[in-house]
Amino acid sequence: MALIVLLALSVLGFIPSRAGECEWDVRLCKTEPVSTEMYCLRTGGMDVRDLDPVEMQKNMGFPYYLKLDLLCGFKESSGRAVLEDSITGLTPEAVVSFQDTTHPTHFRPQRLEVELSVASLSDNATCGSEMCEFSWYAPMPIINGSVVYRVKVKSIEMGSQQLHEKSFALNVNGYMVTTEKAENEASFGTEIQAIEDVLRVGSPSHPLWSVVDHAPVLLLPGIPGLAAVLMTATEFQHTSLIEVSLKSPSGSRECLQVESSMIQETLSTESSLFVIHNQELYRFLGNYSLLPLRVPPSDAWEKLLSAVCVSGLVPVSVPHHGREYFYVLGGGLQSGTLYRAEVYDGDVTFTELVDSIGFTACEIVAFYKNLKRSTVNNPGCQVRSAAQNAQTDVTDIILVELLFHEDQEHSYILLTFDGDFQMTEILPEFILYSQRQRHQETSSLNLKFNGMTLNPSTGILYIWGNSLIFSYILTWEEEQSFWHDSGFPSDQMIKYFTLSYDGTFVFVTEQEELWWGQERTDSVFRLRPSQGWNELSHLQALSGDHSTLTVFYDGDKELQEVLYTVDLDGKGSVVKRKIPVVEILSFSHLPFLSTCPFDLEYSVPHIESFNRLQRYSFNPQLVTSSSELHPTRSLALYQGLVYHLLQLHAQYLMVIGDPKESPISRMEHSCNGVLYKDFCLYLSYNNVSGVTTDSKGHITARLPDRVYLDRTASFSFSLFIRAHQLTLESIGERAVNDIRMFARVPNSKYLSVTLQRYVKLNYGGVLYKVTVTDKGMVEGQVFPGEKLLPFSVLFRIGISPRQCFQQTDRGMVLSGLQNLPVYIGCPPGNRLVFDASTAVLEAVRLNRRNFSCLNPDPVTPCFYYKNCPLMMLSRSKNIILFFPILLIQDVVLGESRKFLGSYTFKIVGGGPHSRKNIQLYTPEEVLRYNSLNYRSQKARIWDIKGCKDDRTTCNVTEDGFFIFNGTRNNGIRWLCQPNSPCADVLSKNPAVSPRFFFIIEVSNRDTETYCSHTFRFDILVHDFPMSSSRKCYIVLVTVACFVGVMVTSRSIF
């Protein structure tokens, strides 16, 4: 048994690898400016000073490379292992994923992965043998708007070792500066090299608070006796101990109860760091040029809420509506107050949660209970915690603790706040233990709660302290019930609670016990101490003393433990290791957990249509040397290829579209000229593929990591549950008949799930066809990928209600419960664009006239005034009509189709002669130039042929804007009435016809989608005719001149 455990754990990485046992490693490297040799960074994360977009564009490449290596227990054996395993067929591949910003700009929300084959580069430039030790390298791509990057290394060909894939966080560190000695230092403090002089084995662990999946840099507080934090940009793969440079370390006399030099709490957001020191809140804004920040980076720590004594922070781990939030608990004279912090594009604002008459949470509770309003400053009333429900509008849930007399027990009240407080629930003295019990049991335990955590996708609110209770807040409109997680002893107190947002959670007690549970189940299990943990402790390879600093879920939702270790020589270090939860549970809870008596076979078609994940894959160029090793210049060319395609990818998100265009096709079209001759020769010899087209018929054997559903859309898949042969032999056909699958949605108002069951006795299993459907109940429309409503659909699978585990190529995994994240709203990767190329071709074909400009610009299509822009032309009574041609493009699948919905068409800006004269019109001007309601002002630029001014013959909005229907041909004609900006355009150059730039805004109005497609594009119109008044003036001047000449001639003769 011990041998089996050892093998399982070494694969999972719970213990460090020994000699002969290897695992993947990734480091960021750069080339030396002079020698072009590679050197790797010490800190692991990316330095923002290397990410200047102008410099990258100048060099046509990124500043970093990925070095893929094997760690085999001893450093000197890694290079030999790379060489030996490469000979036997081991070839790695790096997959880089990009996390979009919390507030993406229009057309920017996207999910993107880049698959990179590696290039072999010699580690020794002087080696002349064909058996030189080498390393694998690949470009490290960077995109604007992303500071969180994840690199997954996997083997595409297996050699002598069975290596499992491994993920790494390589984020941008915006908190580093360069000193006068050209050394890197933290911008907010001083790095301490000898951490053993500061850290102590046996110190209590602390929570790691951050905005999940969006914080590039993490801070861990709790360093005893010093205002210091542990900083990492790689999820503790590399860690720095930083002494924080605060201006006022002594704090305020009005706030302090016990003075401490330690940083009590920290919180990391996408662009900022927040710390609490001596009940004062400080903030440091990072230097992130890749983010759309509205404020400059910090030079020093900034004190916030200077008039408030801060007793604690409450994180909101999931951003909502493009903003990050957290709560600040008041202390001292502000005890009982609560502030909500909002971070938007780097700017932070605070709102005190008081109702319309100025009552705080404690005051409103006192009002309801007929107590004195002075309760706000009474230590008998405290705001313990808060949570945020942002399914539609932001609603705050507040946990208030009451202790009005010393001889009374604690009581707790839940309030909700959406501008005014509502008392939702006084937590009862008795709690319902599980859904299987049909009666309520009175608990003799005096409940004491420390905090509260909400998972917005499941709608489960956890309240934790000396007990763990939970409630489904999305059903509070019907009833409010609280359930109890059994298995947790009454003599323990939960210190901090962490969600994985993938269906599981852990919490740590004051005695440093580690507990684990699954959401929507009624049991929790102790991981440490336990029989399984003790068995694993005997197999640990950690030397010397060690203690836990924190536990957290990484970007792959794997449970990780951060430890401080001191070796036999007294050298201290911070290490991270994965906690194998299933293996520990299999030892400690065998009556509950056992081997699964079934196998699961998924069949999921068209997965890219629902997970909206766009992929590109790259290969390095071929080399002709016998060693097949690449020179450094070859690697630079490989990087240039990746850079060029991602630049084309960014341009692909523009508002001018082509139904046959993609970044790959644009790269191929660029080879028609001579500018990229060498580059195109490289493309012709190497396979560059973008997995963005022709996904129809593609079926995968796994569920997607998430599903996006538009209005009334459905996601379907099949699941075959096959009973094991031993199970069939033991209980026969009953094993098949007992196989069941159940589904649960957190809110049936928005989602429905249908299960169709087919018994397949001949195959020894049951086939389920599953469909998840949006009910179309979300109000309004949003931009693609923004303000999505998250839900998590739970599928319970099994022959019995017990959970079980299965052995897979990634180790042991739990089975029987499957969570499917579903996002309702406008899926990312869809856009509405103006099909300029088709418009021009149709205009040329139907008008029999070439639409040319002196200096054509592909971004700004050019048209004649009389044949003007927008599309197909037809003649009716000598009037030329125009019909808009718009496209709906799916940039993930690479598909385009003509837009047939309804939309509005407005001119919102323009200017004569050149682009520098373009001005955006005010809302009043937009109404005058486009609206039918302002027709009497004679300022309209255009109208629709056939629409009368009485509104009865065409569809218009309340503001008087025309509503187009893509299924009909609504002809546009240009008016440029006397009071319009294009009424009288004169050319400054007699050789060039008059021209005018227009900015056009198109917005869809169809109700069959959640998507709000509003975009703007420019067109150039030239060959404007003279106005009637100017024509009359010229005629009069000409006649006058002619008459004058005639009179003069007659007088002479």
Would you mind describing this structure in some detail?
By secondary structure, the chain is mainly β. Helix content is 15%, strand content 37%. A hairpin with a 6-residue loop joins strand 64 (902-912) and strand 65 (919-920). Helix 8 crosses helix 9. The longest helix is centred in the C-terminal third of the chain and has 25 residues, at 1028-1052. 41% of the residues are buried. Residues 851-1047 form the CATSPERG C-terminal domain. Residues 702-823 form the CATSPERG Ig-like domain. InterPro entries: CATSPERG (IPR028246), CATSPERG_beta-prop (IPR053871), CATSPERG_C (IPR053873), CATSPERG_Ig-like (IPR053874), CATSPERG_N (IPR053872).
Helix content: 10-25%
Please report the total strand number as a whole number: 70
**Count of alpha/pi helices:** 15
In terms of quaternary structure, the protein is single chain
Largest sheet: 6 strands, mixed
Q: Structural class of the helix and strand makeup?
A: mainly beta
Alpha carbon gyration radius: 33 Å
Q: In percent terms, what proportion of residues is strand? A: 35-45%
Alpha-carbon distance between the two ends: 129 Å
Overall average residue pLDDT: 80
Q: Which overall shape is indicated by the principal axes computed on the Cα atoms?
A: globular
Strand order of the largest sheet: 10-9-5-6-45-47
Low-confidence stretches: 1-20, 372-376, 431-443, 687-697, 867-878
